[in-house]
Amino acid sequence: MWALTATDGCEGDLGRMMATSSCPECGSPRIWKDGLRCTRNGEIQRYICRECGYRFSETHWNGSDEFEHAQRVHREPLNTHPGLFSNCQICVSEPKGAKNLAEVESRIEKRAAGATTHELATIKGKIVEFAWNLKREGYSKPTIFNFSYLLRNLVKNGANLAVPESIKDIIAHQESWSLNTKRLMVAAYNCFAKMNGITWNPPKYKPTGKLPFIPLESEIDALIASTGNKMGCLLQLLKETGMRIGEALALRWIDVDLERYVVLVNNPEKSGNPRALKISGKLVTMINKLPKTNEKLFGKMIPKTAGSSLIKLRKRISEKLQNTRIRRIHFHALRHWKATMEYHKTKDILRVMKMLGHRNIQTTLIYTQLVSFEGDDFHSATAETVEEAKKLVEAGFEYVCTHSDTMLFRKRK
User: Does domain 117-195 have CATH number 1.10.150?
Assistant: First the structure.
């Protein structure tokens, strides 16, 4: 430790400094020098305890009753788990008579309230091991990412992954979480418990159904027109095909047939079916403007960065057009819009199911009740023979009735 004595330049009684060998807060000898502190009586050495983070100065006095108090540090966790210790500190000088902004929160107290550094490292290792086991079991990347994120969120809120009852308590006390979020939390921990041999009785959360937001086509077009080449092309692709964002970003140049105007979805998400989808000449032109510096159509763009860019974009367009509905447009909303328009155009639920890549028709049926198109105009046609009727059906017309041996058909304009 350090024994401090007065320097030759000090006058009179000035210059005697108390010896420092341990932290005055926790008594630990692990103290480091932490710069100099300037006072009206000169510079004095400042220290910081490596155990509790307490910062203090040597007492510097001149024989009077005046006393330089030690400095205290109030540490606030910056978006971290209570057991994680932040090096970001707010230094508050406390001379005599000044108000104390906060009491010292020592590292020992933090460890008593939360997890130790070793325990946190163990928890992180368990989650990484869990993610690797999911990959070995054949789970998709989005599922692995989401389950790992949900477990980290539970730990952040104070849950102990080794104690199932603490998981129930944390989930039950989160008033801001929706029933669907709680159900996903239970599903993630249920998978974790199964892989680690933990027995528990999972709580049952049954969320109510919720209809998705369907934007207007004019709102989608306004958003696309205000973007750059890459984001505009991505939004136009989602609008025309109804792909999921992960499926679109996984597209490679070899999956796009620009001559026949076809896009192949060979990497479907959520165990969906692969499919071939038609695209417009407008979208083909936009795709041709993309740089071919990567095997993927949209390069190294990932859903997270694309989503962040969309949030900034729609906020700017919403303020410019004074339309708050634009702020609700997200990538999956374009999938809902395409499915809804396709169903009300063809009235063919199997066609919509095939376009979306669904394996269960119950998932597709939700799109039959999203938007009412009453009062829309139709094209009409008649057929005298079975062959004529067959051609009309192939052209997208639907049968209405038969009058005087003539079959009537219609198709929405």
Answer: yes
